């Protein structure tokens, strides 16, 4: 189907407008989206400052981590969602407080629950926690793309201990861009329709002279060479019409010569040219067909032989693959057994670590009880010290009374002196015991703390080992699946090997049949070549007559004329009647026969 010039002009102008509108629309949408994104980033900066000021007002004091939890002043922020919900209501943002890289308070939800315990995106963690800089841009927030602002949370020493975050989803901004693009596309479509209407009428005005010239040419094609073009546009179309009229004059002169040539050669060349030409053509086609069959059969035999070789190679590779798959299945089963052993070992490890945790807890209680008993001993030592002091005082009083008694109190004085020495020794011993008890209490407190820390680490070890057990279970399931697939593949490979062997046998049978067909084709080709040589001798006798017809074809081919109606009605009748008596006379066929005859002569 040919496309008219009017439609081509319409498509060209409308297509140009469409491309221009698409480029401008794309640029406008990108620009608008960029401006909206920049505005959202500025809002997020102000929301960061607003939220920070609100937290300082609501919870005075500096940020710090105590006992592994995040505090603002004296307020625990872990799980404190009231503040982030309020800031979210004021700003319309998603708000989150991170301890390190982990969410501890947030109004971001995942699967219907607050996303507590989830972590920040790696690129944000690097910028904010590692480099201590504020991050503003797009980021993935619990699986949703957001415009975000992340600011480091610093303690009183300036160390980064967390992240303060506000953000808004990217979806509304993309929806705004899509809506803008749709409206812009609607206006562009209206402009395209209007431009198409203008282009349609303009193309009609331009194509009107061409339609007039085409009508005149159609009349000439039907045999009326008396028609002339009447175009008065004073441009290139008018010049084209004048050239067409000059061409029609020249054709009238040439047709006179053509009529004379046709009358001289028509009767003499018709029967001979048709007969010899068709015979030569048929024999050449038969020879070519037989030759192609022989060549194709040889090629087929070679292809079948190559196919047989490739099938043999494929069978060998399939067998090798089958061996590899069998080995993979065996290795998978061994790995599955090893995974089960590892899983049992992990279970035993968890039980042993739980026993260790229980023992450590009991030891911590025992040591704590020992500390309490040492405090009671300290109290008793204090009482002993007080008694020793009183005894020392009483011994001193007794010595004074013995001195007053003179000779009668000398023995009592000796006893009082011994009691005083004993009291001093008791006081010194009590003081040493008090020092030792203080050291014991201090060491006991350290032991209790170490055991509590050991309990925490043992619990963490249990969690890690449990997670390793889950991983081992997943690995075992995956290995079992691989083993099952490997067994299935091994079975399929065995069936494929059997099918390939059958295909190889069939290909060998086809190769034998193809060789027999090639031999028969060569014999038929030899007989056809002999017949073709006889027909070529007959075709040579008619070559002079075909030359006359060829000259006639060259004259008519120049002007694309099929029939004439310039006043010689007898010629028109002869041209119509002759084919009915002896068959169609085709000058194009005569030229082809001449070329084919020369090629056959060269082949001989």
From TrEMBL:
CC per GO annotation: plasma membrane
Segments forming domain Methyl-accepting transducer: 275-511
Regions of compositional bias (Basic and acidic residues) in chain numbering: 559-579, 588-597
Membrane topology: Multi-pass membrane protein
Keywords: Cell membrane, Membrane, Transducer, Transmembrane, Transmembrane helix
Signal peptide start and end residues: none
Subcellular location: Cell membrane
Region described as Disordered: spans on this chain: 559-604
A Pfam family hit: MCPsignal
Family annotation (InterPro entries): HAMP_dom, MCPsignal_dom, sCache_3, Sensor-like_sf
Transmembrane segment boundaries: 184-207
Any single biological process term in GO: signal transduction
Primary site of residence: membrane
Start and end residues of each HAMP domain: 204-256
Family to which the UniProt record says this protein belongs: Belongs to the methyl-accepting chemotaxis (MCP) protein family.
Name of this protein: Methyl-accepting chemotaxis protein TlpC
Organism, scientific name: Thermacetogenium phaeum
